[in-house]
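Hi V.,

Quick status before I head out on leave. The structure for the redesign project is tokenized and pasted below; the design run finished overnight.
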């Protein structure tokens, strides 16, 4: 397939570009680089001995989107471009709706107008909000608790509306749980700007000595050991779920909503032990108050994706932390460091 990847320079997008090219697809990228750089794509090109056409532009800009889509003759789109910080979305709700919802509408409507057949969308488990029962199936009631979650749910609805109007246009809403880790080569990974808000990148920086200790946000939750439980999925497994979604849509026009996780809940304390055991590095930790807005447990029911596709997650927790640490060690300053591998 000839695929346009919006947001392809980002964390999940760059891993997905790599997997698509490895599987023989042609890939182009549209990204405004507001949270990324050219460097991950340069590395993907080196790793695959290929060239990736990169268009710098904003997915909200209808003229840019139309010209990129028209010139590229794409048959499919994977739409990663978006903003992803729950906390920032409370400060900038309009910006989040604009980029995540209007950006999605602009890309998808133009795709329909030009006869592009398939679009895979980066949604999030955050559309579920707080659920009483675990694991969470796709038909659980949606109840987002942040402007970020609302913008993702609104974007899903926009896509479903377009698909209702045009039955030859296929869509897949992939609801990611907690993507973590890095490519096993150590050449691609997550490079958050500033202080990382999420557990895994922060933990890696504590292990590297950048920060003194990891704060464990609460050890009095009703979970296996009192710490928060999430469904962590290796970013390369997640990348492969996009390949699986495209091939499911290629088989027949349809609308898909899939949870993408491993269906396994893992606690913060279990992550820290796995990291220490796998790397041999001690991670100083301190228990702190619960983080506002956090929930005790969240993990996916993955029955649907495993029944409707060949996709299976292959990478366990040890792979996630080992690959995270390899990425952190080889790229102590992320993609902007001087000693980056080529
Ligand atoms: P990321 O920030 O690394 O990548 C997003 C990419 O989109 C970046 O390269 C950024 O420059 C680009 N972008 C942002 N706004 C744009 C715009 N208006 N026009 C063009 N490009 C734009 O994030 P990621 O972790 O790779 O996430 C990818 C997608 O998956 C996002 O839509 C995010 O909301 C969603 N998602 C991520 C997670 C996660 O934990 N990382 C979880 C659930 C869903
Ligand atoms: C958050 C977002 C979610 C997003 C995901 C990945 C919220 C409410 N949800 O999920 O929408 O998809 O990031 O980007 O923000 N923890 C610590 N110490 C830390 C950091 C985290 O103990 O320094 C704990 C948290 O309390 C939680 C777990 O680690 O139990 C995972 O946290 P995090 O990585 O931030 O992800 P989520 O909160 O699940």
């Amino acid at each position: 397939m000839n695929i346009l990847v919006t947001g392809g320079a980002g964390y999940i997008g760059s891993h997905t570009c790599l997997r698509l090219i490895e599987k023989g697809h042609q890939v182009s990228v549209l990204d405004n680089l507001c949270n990324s750089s050219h460097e991950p794509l340069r590395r993907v090109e080196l790793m695959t001995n290929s060239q990736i056409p990169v268009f710098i532009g904003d997915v909200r800009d209808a003229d840019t989107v139309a010209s990129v889509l028209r010139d590229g003759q794409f048959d499919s789109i994977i739409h990663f471009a978006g903003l992803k910080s729950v906390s920032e979305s409370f400060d900038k709700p309009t910006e989040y709706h604009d980029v995540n919802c209007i950006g999605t509408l602009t890309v998808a409507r133009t795709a329909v107008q030009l006869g592009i057949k398939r679009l895979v969308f980066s949604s999030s488990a955050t559309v579920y909000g707080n659920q009483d029962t675990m694991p969470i199936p796709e038909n659980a009631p949606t109840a987002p608790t942040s402007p970020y979650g609302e913008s993702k749910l609104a974007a899903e609805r926009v896509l479903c509306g377009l698909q209702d109007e045009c039955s030859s246009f296929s869509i897949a809403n992939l609801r990611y749980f907690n993507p973590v880790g890095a490519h096993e080569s150590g050449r691609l990974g997550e490079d958050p700007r500033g202080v990382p808000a999420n557990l895994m990148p922060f933990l890696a920086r504590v292990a590297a000595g950048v920060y003194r200790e990891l704060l464990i946000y609460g050890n009095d939750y009703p979970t296996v050991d009192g710490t928060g439980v999430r469904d962590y999925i290796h970013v390369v497994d997640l990348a492969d779920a996009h390949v699986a979604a495209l091939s499911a849509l290629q088989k027949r026009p349809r609308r898909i909503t899939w949870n993408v996780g491993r269906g396994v809940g893992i606690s913060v304390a279990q992550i820290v032990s796995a990291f220490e055991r796998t790397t041999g590095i001690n991670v100083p930790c301190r228990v702190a108050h619960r983080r506002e807005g956090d929930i005790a447990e969240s993990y996916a029911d993955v029955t649907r994706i495993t029944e409707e596709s060949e996709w299976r997650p292959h990478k366990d927790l040890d792979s996630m932390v080992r690959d995270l640490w390899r990425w952190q060690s080889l790229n102590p300053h992320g993609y902007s460091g001087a000693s980056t591998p080529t």
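Above is the designed sequence. The chain has one domain: 2-330.

G. will cover questions while I'm gone.

Best,
W.
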